[in-house]
Fold this protein.
Amino acid sequence: MTSFLGFFLIYNFYILILLVTGLIFKKIFLKNKVDNLTLGEIGIFGFVFIYLFVTIFHFFLPITITFSLIFYLLCIIIFLFEFKNISNFIRANINKYIIFVYLLGFLTAVTNNLHDDWQLYQLPIINYMQHFKIIFGFISLNDYYGQGHSFYELMSIFQLPFLKNTSLYLLPVIFVIFFLSHVLIEIKKTDDKGKLYLFFIIALILLRFSRSKEFGTDLPVICLLFIIQIYVLNFIRKPNSELLFKIGVFFTFAVFLKIYAALAILYLFFLFKKRNFRFFFDLFKINRLSFFIIFLILFSFSKNIITSGCFFYQLKNMCLDKNVASWSIGNKVANERHIFTSASSKGWKAYVRTEKPKKFVSAEEYLELSKFNYFKYLSKDAIFDRLIITLLICFIFIIFHIKNLKKNESNKIFNSNSVIMFGSLFAVIIWLLKIPNVRYGGYAYVPFFIFMTFFYYYDLKKLNKKFISVFISLCLIFFTTKNLDRIYDEVSTDKSLNYPFSNYKNIKYKTTNIQNVKINVPLNQLWCGNIPMLCSSGDYLITNVISKNSYIFLLSKEKDMIKFINRTAYYDTVVENYIEK
């Protein structure tokens, strides 16, 4: 019981820190511009502000426990000085529904079941941030470290004395709680069409993301995509430049969390309409918020180039040549990983499991043989079931409103609704052709296109409130009972005294010494988990280490990194499918 109470207090402490930093962001960058930010928006702006704060300081020093304590102290001092304003803001923005979401968030956060990738890159990145300042060529330790995991970088500052990193997985849950809080406020402001889409979002999250172990980087990015969609709809209803700047901040943050968020740029085609064109130029006005966006872009690109030698790793031809930057992972490696990711998102693993080929089929070979029929194998993947569930929820919401529909007689080819519909269509087409995995933005891109098409052809006379009440109630019952059952099972099997704090298993490792820099390598598995940094997934990956002006440069050979990618390919498609070689 004591550990539960401690976990709950930390949950509230993290929320407070994020609200304080969000209000700092508002005071500095949105002063006299936006006075009606919701509680959820403030919290998410807090995440963005902390990300930039951590990124900048990590260029010069590690995010140690001392650094974290100083950060907490500053936040607490600001909270005390602004106590009246902060407490008034919270009281003015909180209601019984937000309190209920806050309690549901804690319910799903209570778990000792970690995300599947905690050993692969999540905890290793956090440990690296806390023990080393930025390292040139950090990606050479394990190329998964460079695949857009900035959320775990900002999580590194939330370590606590004695507890260390055992409570960090509260943060993705808190992000989603802030998002849902914003959605609840938006429901009161928008029209019935907007309400229908917002209630769909709530239902989707309750039904599809009932376990916090699923709250990796992808869910915060999906939430950011949903927020951008909400802002776009709000802009169509009431154009203003403040919405565009908020879109700019969240879009930039989302892209540097996961590159697939870049497809959301297609939603902004409506800015090129004559009526909206003046707002396009507002984006280039020099003000505090535009400077923040510029800093966000510059420091994020700089971080990417230093850690990997690439502007965006995994994209083709986005890396510096090794002759220019010796620490760069190189375009050959990046292109190899791009092929791997593309094959994985198009059913490669399902192909190996169902077809059971006699010899190993590489990612490149799979893409060639499934060039025109990868949906056949993608449909056999468990991830495809998640897309079906998402589509099913969409159509349930639409079907139960058929009686309340009226054919839209005033459709114009080039009105804002049609531009949004076509923009969302292009986003879905690119998604289907390039990364047709629902976790790579599909949860947001596909439903938005369906609802925008629906709204283009039909007007919604009124919301079916009875259906909404019943369906959301069923979703809440499902979400609550599933989490209560899970907690009961976990408490029954976990005999440790620190539940629900994370328990990171100890992993055996060996240590190699290269130019007086220690590199740890796991002995009985591929991933580093909680092994002290620096930790590499193979003793052959780092060929040389250079120390210069207190900075570490990790050098690797392209052939060794490609060997590692091929090794992970075999592990992902064969070992995890229990198929004998």
Q: What stands out?
A: The radius of gyration is 24 Å.
